[in-house]
Write a structure and sequence with these properties.
Elements (H helix, E strand, L loop, with lengths): L3 H11 L10 H4 L4 H7 L4 E6 L9 H10 L6 E4 L6 E5 L5 E5 L6 H12 L2 E7 L5 H14 L3 E5 L19 H12 L17 E6 L10 H13 L4 E4 L5 H13 L6 E2 L1 E2 L7 H9 L5 H9 L3 H21 L4 E5 L4 H11 L1
Helix pairs in contact: 1-5, 1-6, 12-13
């Protein structure tokens, strides 16, 4: 993810992707996510893309964006993924740990998107799988490339490399947030100071209408949401949910806690029959019974796509009617569904 030498080479290659062949001021000063949301006259549209697996070109990303750009996305998120390791037995009987999931870095993809499409790119910066020093290099690269929006997350703790020194890593997103805040002030990890942060990073962070799986209570989740905002988060983005009442209740509780930043609902269209059981297990998002009943009727994944799209359309219309500031779509394996939904609501 964070290879500075490669980034310098990529930067040179990507400049011609802009419609203008000069280094324009727009390249440096993209409008920030929080400004898009505040200035939008309607509920903003955004989505995230997943870096392709090794061996696949960026055209996979462009294909997704080309299908959705007519709906004028205000920003595009790029997920970040650490390696995933498995143990493999060698012919001599020894066991090796092998990285089975390698993806291009979100830094490079964010730069490509922002320069080709002129759309604000938001790379995810995560704790798990990346050291504090690697994160600092990523922030240096992003600042250099004119990318000044982030989504700060803990990341998935599963299948990380064993035997690493835990002190090299952040455990929680709130710790990573403090590193970004220090970087914005020109303070490096080693305590030294530096110049050149003309545009500080603006960032969002995650929140959980149905409680984070590791949180002991909803009150604990609300406490950390408040801490994220108090320490500088410009907005919050929810984990996927399928029942709007939980989002509305969660937002009301945040407002009662004095949290006034935009809370962006995250929507995931269901596209497979097995997601009826997989999504609650993996993401701890409850499937409401009316949707579950429709999915149980499905005999094929094509029917599940229909049921999922119709449910998401209903969700989004209600969210827009009730003033959601933006709707953020999780497009993985669901780009066509997101396009269909966007046609109905934008």
């Amino acid at each position: 993810m964070f290879d500075t030498a490669k980034l310098q080479f990529i930067f040179i290659i990507l400049l011609p992707l802009r419609h203008e062949y000069s280094f324009s001021h727009d390249f440096i000063c993209m409008k920030k996510v929080i400004d898009h949301i505040r200035e939008s006259k309607k509920t903003a549209f955004s989505f995230e893309v997943l870096p392709p697996l090794k061996g696949n070109s960026i055209c996979r990303i462009y294909d997704i964006i080309d299908k959705l750009k007519e709906f004028i996305p205000q920003y595009i998120n790029i997920t970040s993924h650490h390696g995933e390791f498995i143990e493999r037995t060698n012919p001599d009987g020894t066991v090796s740990r092998v990285n089975i999931r390698k993806r291009p870095g979100s830094v490079a993809i964010a730069s490509a998107i922002q320069n080709k499409y002129g759309i604000t790119a938001v790379p995810h910066v995560i704790c798990k799988g990346f050291t504090k020093e690697e994160t600092e290099y990523a922030l240096i690269d992003l600042n250099f490339l004119g990318i000044h929006d982030l989504l700060i997350l803990r990341g998935d703790a599963k299948n990380l490399e064993k035997g690493v020194n835990p002190s090299l890593y952040h455990d929680y997103a709130t710790e990573l947030q403090l590193q970004v805040n220090n970087f914005n002030k020109g303070i490096a990890l080693d305590g030294s100071t530096f110049e050149g942060i003309d545009t500080p990073f603006s960032y969002g962070m995650a929140c959980y209408p149905e409680k984070h799986e590791d949180a002991p209570s909803m009150e604990s989740d609300l406490f950390y949401a408040r801490e994220k905002v108090r320490n500088g988060a410009d907005y919050l983005v929810t984990q996927m949910f399928f029942e709007n009442a939980k989002y509305f209740s969660f937002v009301e509780r945040l407002r009662n806690e004095g949290i006034t930043v935009p809370v962006i609902p995250g929507i995931k269209p269901i596209v497979f029959m097995n997601q009826l059981t997989v999504l609650p297990k993996v993401f701890h998002s409850e499937i409401p019974e009316p949707l579950a009943a429709e999915l149980r009727k499905c005999k094929t994944d094509a029917q599940a796509v229909e049921a999922g799209a119709e449910w998401s359309i209903m969700q989004c219309k209600e969210l827009i009617k009730n003033g959601a500031p933006s709707i953020h779509f999780y497009t993985f394996m669901a780009t066509d569904s997101v396009r269909r939904i966007a046609k109905e609501i934008y």
